[in-house]
Amino acid sequence: MHKPDQHPDVKTGKIGLLLVNLGTPDAPDKKAVKRYLKEFLSDKRVVEIPDIIWQPILRGIILNTRPKKSAHAYGQVWMDEGSPLAVYTRRQAEALAVKYGDKVQVDWAMRYGNPSIASRLQAMKDAGCDRILVAPLYPQYSGATTASVNDAVFDAVKAMRWQPAIRMLPPYHDDAAYIGALKSSVESALAALDFEPDAIIASFHGMPKRTLELGDPYHCHCQKTTRLLSEAMGRELVISFQSRFGPAKWLEPSTDMMLEKLAQEGKKKVAIFAPGFSSDCLETTEELGIRGKEDFEAAGGERFALIPCLNDSEDGINLLDNLVRRELSGWI
Q1: pLDDT at 248
Q2: Which of 20, 104, 123, 137 is least surrounded by CB atoms within 10 angstroms?
Q3: At residue 263, does pLDDT exceed 80?
Q4: What is the CATH number that goes with domain 176-306?
């Protein structure tokens, strides 16, 4: 059968994998940070306050005060290749692309900032991907993270006449492969230290306590991850929540207060890691690695170690490969 004259050339039959992380500004400067924060803090999944109340606060106060401070923080951790979150997410995509070869087209995107989810989905569709697995790199589900990615994906697909089939990677907070990867990574890092920690802290990104009361499973997922990892390692882990913002009540205990409490209790040597982050970023490298260390030492602590995220390590890539191959079952 011959195509009609002037029929457009349509590519089909390919499978796509899109890794998605939270987001980052394009540069460590005030202008780029302000643009990023405006998009991030305007997401109703992130800030569940009516616009009539929130937008004047965001535009009148936050976007005129916070970007300069945040830009300085980004400048402290910015890598030669760019923002740590973007660098590691890209490396993860590149490593998986090597594993899959021609079978799967692998790409990456950010929920906020660049490259956008919509642009990468369109690029995949244009390249002939009519089946796409989207992988939000959040082990623990939250409406502010996982659900927000889902929203952006289906908003993008909604604009397409010929839509690809879409699968979404589910949360993997209690997956044996995830717990195993964390165990291997944390234990290797601990073995390389020149001191024995008095406490090991698992620090998760915080959420307003109200989200738990409204039925968000995030807090429970964090607790289960910590319990399973503690059991697998055979040692106690201390759970805490970082990155509090605004006057609302947040999940507790807070990481900054926990660091102070441990030092005051005589636990002078600590190691801390962030199991809810698939890649190192501002919240791990600067908030924990720089400010967390300062807080701990100011309270009397003596030795402090930040354990890296899984990033593009062998443990991290093997975990993603395990999760992705499972979800691509029947497609490859």
Answers
A1: 85
A2: 123
A3: yes
A4: 3.40.50.1400
